[in-house]
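Checklist before submission:
- one chain only
- standard amino acids only
- sequence pasted in full

Submission:
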Amino acid sequence: MFQKVRGLFRKETLEDKIPIVILNLESALDRLDSISENLRKEDNNLFESCVKARMENDTVHAMMYANECAEIRKIALLVVSSKYALEQMV
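Returned file contents:
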């Protein structure tokens, strides 16, 4: 009985917290992988649209697609660097 009561008020140790933190980090890595994959697909779609617009001599749309593609690549670089930082923690 005393063990149960003491267990309720026991302070959680670092040994107890470490597996939870590792699980949270791995979950964050999975989310970053998913985001990275979605950004890669979007980048490919925009690049193909840019090439298609350029071949049709539609320079306005081609520039718009190219700028959007550049922005997505910047975000993808940020996601990948965040992913590497998290991988080093795990």
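Reviewer check: Residues 14-55 form the longest helix (42 residues).
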